[in-house]
Design goal:
The protein is an alpha/beta fold. 56% of the residues lie in helices and 12% in strands.
Length: 290
């Protein structure tokens, strides 16, 4: 039931059935046959890869029982008498594969922004995009059409946090993105890897040992612990410098209070420890002596 409801919302945007502008609702949407050769690929199509076997299955289905659902197209802004696929590129590709010459279409007069949004909605609601394609699709709506996370959430029916988490993985290294596209790792893995210091290295370990998401999260935590240990060890090494230790001892004896020096490559902090305000006044008086 949820899927059907969301798909209806997507079709409202595609075909103009908007409650806010009920005067524009067309209850008798007309489909038309046009030559397949007049239709061009939508460069803003979220889906970048198509499963050949599933495309062949759809092609055979169209060949045997015909095209059940028309595709949606709009006029090409660059090529006169040409049309761009807004929704239904798989059906268009499958029809070409089936050897058809014409295809049923519904014309949309929506602008490029709404067409891009419609294309994203059609694909994410059918849940057949890979995680990287879905993330890039949401990101393009933000960068190219200035949509907010909240607006994308409203139009797609996905939660705001869902949208935000997907957009975050756009920042992954290219080789890790490819792992997502090839489905070697899942979205859950990708989200966990965002916290890693060495993302690609961790991703390869995940793939090599076939770690699940929980194990991946544990792996990242172990990496962070190791980094923290190294930082502490490096700090301790600097504090144990014999010259610094000698200065600490000398100043502690000279002042009569414990002195600590934290040095890092010639720069640092010198601190004098006291336990009472009286001791603090004594330390200040020592420094005030000529």
């Amino acid at each position: 039931m949820i899927t059907k409801k969301r798909l209806k919302t997507g079709l409202n945007i595609l075909l103009g059935d908007d409650k806010k502008s009920s005067a524009n609702i067309n209850t008798n949407i007309q489909k038309t046959k046009i030559d397949l050769s007049l239709i061009e690929v939508n460069s803003k199509q979220p889906r970048k890869t198509f499963d050949d076997d599933k495309l062949l299955e759809l092609s055979n289905s169209i060949k045997n029982i015909g095209q059940i659902v028309p595709i949606i197209v709009r006029e090409s802004p660059k090529n006169k008498n040409k049309y761009i696929v807004v929704a239904g590129e798989r059906r268009w590709r499958a029809s070409k594969l089936a050897g058809l010459k014409t295809i049923d279409v519904v014309f949309s007069d929506k602008n490029e922004k709404l067409s891009s949004l419609a294309s994203v909605i059609e694909n994410v609601q059918r849940e057949d995009l890979n995680s990287m394609e879905e993330a890039e699709a949401y990101n393009s709506l933000i960068n190219e059409h200035n949509l907010t996370h909240e607006e994308i959430s409203k139009f797609t029916g996905k939660s705001r946090s869902y949208i935000s988490n997907f957009i975050r993985i756009v920042g992954l290294p290219d080789d890790v993105k490819q792992f997502l596209i090839e489905r070697k790792i899942t979205f859950g893995h990708a989200r966990a890897l965002l916290s890693a210091k060495h993302i690609t290295k961790m991703a390869n370990i995940v793939i090599k040992h076939q770690l699940n998401v929980r194990q991946t999260e544990d792996l990242i935590k172990e990496e962070q612990k190791e980094i923290s240990k190294k930082d502490i060890n490096n700090e301790n090494i600097n504090e144990k410098d014999p010259n610094i230790s000698d200065y600490e001892k000398y100043l502690s004896l000279k002042l009569g209070y414990e002195v600590e020096i934290k040095d890092k490559k010639g720069k640092g902090v010198l601190s004098v420890k006291y336990k009472t305000l009286d001791q603090l006044e004594n330390i200040i008086s020592i420094f005030n002596k000529e």
